[in-house]
């Protein structure tokens, strides 16, 4: 029963969209009607500037970290920590309180991964920086690094169950970015 409450609480935590709070509180605007309409750090940054981007990024990252840290505190293992992070991302990407129109989950993913396991996070960041140095695209480098997270987990011998859970985690983030990936692919093919 505790596990059920943990996962439900993590999903509801994910429903707290930092972008919506910041845009409504400080700019008196509804972020769903501004820019791309996405309630995430990138859109907030484009519409309201760097300070709003940083505040949104950290606000959403804290959600991911809190869910994982709560799971650690309750004594659950690494697999459940990843499941709690998945629940937060589901709440952020598909928030019931905002008609399932949420962000894309990158900030919450990063915060959760940092709280989950420092070596995994460090390798993830290293891969991202290396890829960005060659690709020069935050989106492609970031999503590529996210795809590699399950392999990192496997290479660090964190267990098969954790590997499977991180496969679902990475897939969820990729699914949330399907439109970005499609647009990038179309541009490279000359279709847009």
Question: What's a quick, concise take on this entry?
Answer:
The protein has helices spanning 2-14, 18-26, 41-48, 50-73, 78-93, 106-116, 118-135, 138-155, 160-176, 178-189.
Keywords summarizing the entry:
single chain; 192 residues; 0% strand; mainly alpha; globular
Give a structural overview.
One of its GO terms (molecular function) is acyl-phosphate glycerol-3-phosphate acyltransferase activity. The chain crosses the membrane at residues 6-27, 76-97, 109-135, 147-176. It catalyses: an acyl phosphate + sn-glycerol 3-phosphate = a 1-acyl-sn-glycero-3-phosphate + phosphate. Belongs to the PlsY family. The chain is mainly alpha-helical. It has one domain (2-189). Helix content is 76%, strand content 0%. It contains ten helices and no strands. Helix 2 crosses helix 4 (50-73), helix 3 packs antiparallel against helix 4 (50-73) and helix 5 runs antiparallel to helix 6. The chain is globular, with a radius of gyration of 16 Å. The mean pLDDT is 92.
Layout of helices and strands:
Elements: H1 2-14, H2 18-26, H3 41-48, H4 50-73, H5 78-93, H6 106-116, H7 118-135, H8 138-155, H9 160-176, H10 178-189
Helix pairs in contact: 1-4, 1-5, 2-4, 3-4, 4-5, 4-6, 5-6, 5-9, 6-7, 7-8, 8-9
């Amino acid at each position: 029963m505790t596990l059920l409450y943990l996962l439900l609480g993590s999903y509801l935590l994910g429903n707290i969209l930092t972008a919506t709070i910041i845009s409504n509180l400080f700019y008196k605007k509804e972020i769903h009607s501004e820019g791309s309409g996405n309630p995430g750090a990138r859109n907030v940054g484009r519409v309201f500037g760097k300070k709003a981007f940083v505040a949104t990024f950290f606000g959403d990252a804290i959600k991911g970290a809190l869910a994982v840290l709560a799971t650690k505190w309750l004594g659950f293992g690494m697999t459940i920590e990843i499941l709690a992070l998945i629940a937060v991302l589901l709440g952020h990407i598909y928030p019931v309180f905002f008609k399932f129109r949420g962000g894309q989950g990158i900030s919450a993913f990063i915060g959760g991964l940092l709280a989950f396991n420092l070596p995994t996070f460090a390798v993830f960041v290293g891969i991202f920086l290396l890829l960005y140095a060659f690709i020069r695209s935050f989106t492609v480098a970031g999503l590529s690094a996210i795809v590699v997270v399950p392999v990192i987990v496997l290479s660090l011998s964190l267990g098969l169950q954790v590997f499977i859970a991180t496969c679902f985690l990475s897939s969820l983030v990729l699914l949330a970015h399907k439109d970005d990936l499609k647009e990038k692919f179309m541009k490279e093919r000359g279709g847009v």
